[in-house]
Amino acid sequence: MNPKVQPLFDALSEVLLGKERQIRLALACLLARGHLLIEDIPGVGKTTLAHALARLLGLSCQRIQFTSDLLPADILGAAIYDQKLREFRFHPGPIFHQVVLADEINRASPKTQSALLEAMEEEQVSIEGQTYALPQPFFVIATQNPFHQHGTFPLPESQLDRFLMRIRLGYPDPRAERELLQSGGRSQKARALAPCLEAKELLTMQAQVEQVYVSSPILDYVLELLGQSRALADFPLGLSPRAGLALLRAARAWAFLEGRDFVLPDDVQAVFEPVAGHRLGDESGVRRLLEAVAVP
Fold it and tell me: Could you give the CA distance from residue 103 to residue 47 in angstroms, rounded to a whole number?
């Protein structure tokens, strides 16, 4: 692994036991300037991962608990009339933090969910005709419960597409779970974490990820994956050009994690399912798609 990222990975592995691949994917998502969606049952460490990342990077973090009565203004903020100054003043909402944990995002109504669209895509918020830039770096980690649970609203395709990756943490393996039970949990350890990177170092690494080289055969490989997703009957809608750009960003970040400045087919394959799964809606079909395209 890239020595610049190794301390961050090691610290996260101490908090989230037995989840090395998921941690790598979360770091790749962060380095690629993307946003992360974690779908799983309550109690497997989704919130712990978000708080641990924020603490290790020394970033400001805000948790927003999504509920059915949450309003867009509760997230973005609002312009409130100041009687002394006789003018409207903007009061920023909790979205104005570097790491935002949107907890149980699919418990809010679609109207409230859509409040995040501009923030996640353009890193800004528009209120009453005024535009306000969000702090940098800006990283949204959203969690959602399985759709069969009571009181959930499915995320629309436009909202899903704003997330670079979707991952699942799953249950820990027996050995990791035994260690977890013996230690009484990892929440206390997560709260005691000290920063091992500064925000400016993260921004530098994100810029370096953008310079990772993608060769012509790799580009052809990605184009073939996009084309096959539109041609196969497994999926009602194929991958969009934006999904192709997301796949390349994630593959560059994975290559950077591996300590390389060029992308290999293995990098594309490593991130393909987390990038494409929620966009295509059929994970078994995603795996078949990956197997159907020849590797350069």
Answer: 8
122 Cβ contact list (under 8 Å, min separation 6):
none
Give the pLDDT confidence score for residue 137 in this predicted structure. 92
Q: What angle do CA 281, 287, 289 make, to 5 degrees?
A: 85
| More confident position, 95 or 153 | 95
Alpha carbons 29 and 142: distance in angstroms, whole number: 13
**What does R_g of the chain's alpha carbons equal in angstroms?**
20
Q: Which amino acid is at 155?
A: L
pTM of the model: 0.90
Q: Kindly give the pairing relationship between strand 87-92 and strand 77-82.
A: antiparallel
Which domains can be identified in the chain, with CATH numbers?
Answer: 6-194 (3.40.50.300), 211-292 (1.10.8.80)
Mean pLDDT lowest among 64-68, 83-87, 210-214, 246-250 = 83-87
| CA-CA-CA-CA torsion sign (133, 12, 169, 249) | positive
Give, in order, the Cα–Cα distances in Å from 193 to each of 52, 71, 189, 268. Answer: 7, 33, 7, 32
The alpha carbon of residue 213 and the mean position of all alpha carbons in its chain are separated, in whole angstroms, by 23
pLDDT, mean over the chain: 88
CB atoms within 10 A of CB 113: 24
Q: Tell me: the pLDDT tens digits for 112-131?
A: 888 888 899 899 998 878 89
Q: How much is the pLDDT for 234?
A: 77
